[in-house]
Amino acid sequence: MIADFGFGVLLVAFLASLYSVIAALYGEFNKIPAMVESARRAMLLTWPLLTLAAGILVYLLVNDHYEVKFVYEVTSRAMPTYLKVTAWWGGQAGSLLFWSWLMSAFASLVTLRKWDRDREFLPWVIVVASVTLAFFIGMNLFFENPFRQFYQTFNNEIAAYTFQPANSILFTPADGQGLNPLLRHPGMIIHPPMLYLGFVSFVIPYAFAMAALITGRTDDRWIRLTRRWTLWAWLFLSAGLVLGGRWAYDVLGWGGYWGWDPVEIAAFMPWLTGTAFLHSVMIQEKRGMFKHWNMLLVILTYDLVIFGTFLTRSGVLSSVHAFAQSAIGPLFFAFIGITLITSVALIIYRWDLLKSETQMTSLLSREALFLLNNLLFMSILVVCFWGVIYPLISELFTGQKVTVGPPFYERATGPLWATLLLLMGIAPLSAWGHSTLKTLGRAIWIPAFGAVIVTAALFVTYTQNVFALVGFFLVALVILVTIYEYGRGAYARSRSQGENIFTAFWNLTGRNRRRYGGYIIHLSMMLMAIGILGIELFQVETQGTLAVGDSLQLSGYTVRYKEVASWDNPGAGVNHTRAVVEVYDKNGNLLGNLHPRKDYYYDTQQPMTIPGQLASLKDEVYVLLIDWEPITPVGTTFKIFVNPLVNWLWLGSLLFLVGVIIAAWPDKDPERVTVRDGKRVPQASAAD
Amino acid sequence: MTINKFVIGGFLILGAVVFLIWSSTAATSEYFLTVDELNAKGADVLDRNLRVSGAVIGETIKYDAQTLTLSFEVAHVPAEQALIEDEGGLAEALHQAVIDPARARLKIVYVGPMPDLLRHEAQAIVTGKLGADGVFHADELLLKCPTKYEEAVPEQSASR
Questions:
Q1: How far is CA A685 from CA A122, A202, A213, A681, in A?
Q2: CB within 8 A of A385, min separation 6: which ones?
């Protein structure tokens, strides 16, 4: 009954979003502001409606309503309540509803802002947001209804229906199947919402870009309006990616964090275009260039977001991410095709309005280096896209499905990443408009010299691996250049303002948060790069079956097996088997105890291997419990990884959060600041 | 002349990217085969990097914890989406593959920790090489358990 009500609410939300599209268009074309206002209000209505629908779904999940198919699939009685709530996005139908719910929240937030100066954008932003919203709610309504219930017909067949068939009774299973235990990890609980927050918030800049194209107000107003949205979107997307990596590292037990799986790549591709976009909008703001390019990037990001949602939700590509086939694939594909073609057609229609205001002259100027940065991000995107669709292409042309795996991506993107690092080192030192080798050389020689010394020191003390040395050189260069630039600014400020150096650092960052937030992000990326270089190039592993008291040696560490115990936890429906091992360093000092574990979930009949991890900045000792003898614990098998430097990756991601928050934090009075920044006042008419 | 240097630079980058993609594809691509296709090709694909997908047969799973050696058999599952849909979705297709004794089977050997998702009627996607003895030596093992996520109908329906 209540599930039927949930379906009804979804239907009303769908109609409201359709109405807001039609009313906005009608009001815009017939110049009836009241209709646009009506569209805005319909748009605002979708969020409470979807919140109600989602609330109903969560109510059903929490209260064990297993007659609802979705509830039956993703929860079981043994699951704690918080997991029942988060099971909302544990399956396809629920995650689509979650997408729509976020979309309507963001669209509402945007339509609630003050529109005085941008009235002409409003109807079009509503149209784009509502079309997207209607598409996703429609998916839920017509194909992936989370409120479908089991009915038993008179010939004893049980199946799930949206509406009760004639001569049938509701069927309620005694217990649900339960969420896959692999998904019961904290990283997995917040990874999908983060990723979705990132995905969905990229719709807003796209909506403004389309509004700018349609209205012909193609100056950088739309970019200024959506700058912070884009940064927050980027923050969430990045956080989602990192959390996914952390989940894989903690749960999947192969000692890695990223497997170049198509679904991972699908989430990574909008990040690439989004990152390129964040950089290239600065060129448009400062120099009035790259206008077509920025439009294209925001369109690509939007469609890659939809593509990413589609890829995780369809069965076109094989992947460890086990969401099954469904009928919604072709519809996603059609939606992507239509929005892409319409958007690109709009760029072509407004081509002349988007002409650059200045010419690029110098190959080493800041804008040329930004262009190169963009090309590199796009190249990595092309590599990823090629890798993902290669099986489909090869099958189309040769009839033979050929795939590429991680080695392809590592080989093809490695040099591109290295070049990006080099650029990160050079670009902050180059000037807008014009730079020469001489001016750049003068600025860079001190940090470059420092990087050479660091690399030489690493060569003597740490590694002779050429790839690692190149990588560490580039990382050192970027870190030193960034600190050097930052320090120079702070020093100059402390001299001129008479502040002490720490106050100067603080105020400098506050004065130009975007720039210095950006530098902090660059530094955080370098910390992450250290971690990636460490685990990719220096990971070592061993395994062995040990009797109590025996030990394994790996990379200077000694892992000694102490005991193993097995017990049931009937309340949670889990059997735990936990080993205790001691880790010693090469001098025989005890570093700590680890508890690698194997849990067995009775409801899903699924084991789950949980590693014991001993973290330090130098290495991480990562121990997996493979097998044990239940009665006489004489032969217990362990697999051990030593992952050098990997914790820099996680530290870097924390610093990354700080950097983005500094860059994206709202100004006290945004309108006033925008005016002050906006020396190049809107010049749509003067653009050509 | 300023335009020229940007055009030349652009072409250099384009060339470099095309080269990177082309050479990496050539060096690392793997045939993606079903068990039937692998049997048909047989000796032609010895020592080539291959990726094979099939349905795991639960009773054949053997694990030697001393050496971390895992072996199991997979049964042929059609690759085409349409055929899988015909059989009633991936979960049903995997079930059909496992109960049908006439289906071609392939023995897989893998050294490493036993994956948590390995179980009866899971879809295994293995990457590795076919040995001369007809055993597939996998160095990578991906598993999908579609029944855990989608198209599930309660147990009772199957028993009546």
A1: 20, 28, 14, 11
A2: A269
Residue A312: per-residue pLDDT: 67
| Mean pLDDT across A566-585 | 90
Q: What is the CA radius of gyration of chain A?
A: 28
B104 in A contact zone (CB under 8 Å): no
pLDDT (0 to 100) of residue A671: 45
Looking at the structure, tell me whether residues A544 and A661 fall in a common domain. no
Does B112 lie at the interface with A, CB-CB under 8 angstroms? Answer: yes
Considering the domain architecture, whether residues A545 and A534 belong to the same structural domain is answered as: no
- Closest partner CB to B6 (pick from A360, A383, A605): A360
Provide CB contacts within 8 A for A22, sequence distance 6+.
Answer: A39
Q: Are residues A96 and A119 both part of a single domain? A: yes
Q: Is residue A315 within 8 angstroms of chain B, CB to CB?
A: yes
DSSP strand pairing (B30-34 vs B50-64): parallel
CA-nearest residue to A363 within chain B is: B6
Residues A533 and A550 in one domain: no
Q: Give which of A59, A139, A53, A128 is closest to A96, Cα–Cα.
A: A139
* Structural domain ending residue among the three candidates A163, A179, A195: A179
Element housing A594 (H / E): strand A590-594
- Asked if A443 and A474 sit in the same domain, the reply is yes
Question: What does the pLDDT look like over A674-683, one tens digit per residue?
Answer: 444 444 444 3
- A78 and A34 share one domain: yes
User: Model pTM?
Assistant: 0.89
ipTM of the complex as predicted: 0.84
Q: Do B148 and A315 touch (CB under 8 A)?
A: no
Same domain, A599 and A660: no
| A45 shares a domain with A123 | yes
| Domain hosting residue A485, numbered range | 436-538+647-666
